[in-house]
Amino acid sequence: VVHVFGRRPNPDGDDATDMRAHVVKWIPAVVMTAYTYIVEGEDAESLGLGWDGPKAFVKRVVAGMVVMLGANVVLEPLHERLGAEQMQSEMAEFTEASVLERLFIALTAGVTEELLFRGYALERIESETGSRLVAAASSTAAFVLAHKSDTWSWGSLVLIAQPATLITTIYLRSRGLLAAMTVHARNDAVG
Question: Quick check: pTM over 0.85?
Fold first, then answer.
């Protein structure tokens, strides 16, 4: 039985996957969104959440997935040298999760991380500094460093920086946060 919002029993008797840690990741995104509306008096578009139709959305998502796939193919030899095997072992909890759990984890990461690091941080840093480059570099660095934990090693952060930089670039070109969220979630779900 899968308990999406609790601990998943592990048949091997090892520690179970604690899905609550992923549920908690929604709290900062919700608080930041409320802050944007209530304190800043800004709307969803100030977070990159504009909508200019399904055609533009699909075009951005397809372009983003093509860019991510192309970069992964081109950079695969570099990934191997940088320790992709270590990162794969660090992903064991994710790969052992059920399909429903993986989708929830990927959706959580795609929505909450893009909202916090691209939609809020990048937009606010650019507004304050007037520099897209400073905003992109700062928000991407913050995104990568936020992944340093018991799960991810310093070597894995180098590998995380590649898709983070690409998604930042995709977002900057389109200002379509929903597409960035979708590309991020898809990348996390299937690699």
Answer: no
Tell me how far apart the alpha carbons of residues 125 and 162 are, in angstroms, rounded to a whole number. 21
Residue 18 forms beta bridges with which residues?
7
d(CA 3, CA 129): 45
Q: How far is CA 141 from CA 6, 98, 122, 145, 158, in A?
A: 31, 31, 11, 6, 11
pLDDT in tens, the chain (191 residues): 234 444 444 444 444 457 888 899 999 999 999 999 999 999 999 999 989 899 999 999 999 999 988 887 887 777 666 665 665 665 666 777 888 988 999 999 999 999 999 999 999 999 999 999 999 999 999 999 998 876 677 777 877 888 899 999 989 998 999 999 999 999 888 86
Q: Which residue has the tokens 């048949």?
A: 11
Say if CB 113 and CB 28 are below 8 A apart: no
Which residue reads 């991510």 in tokens? Answer: 68
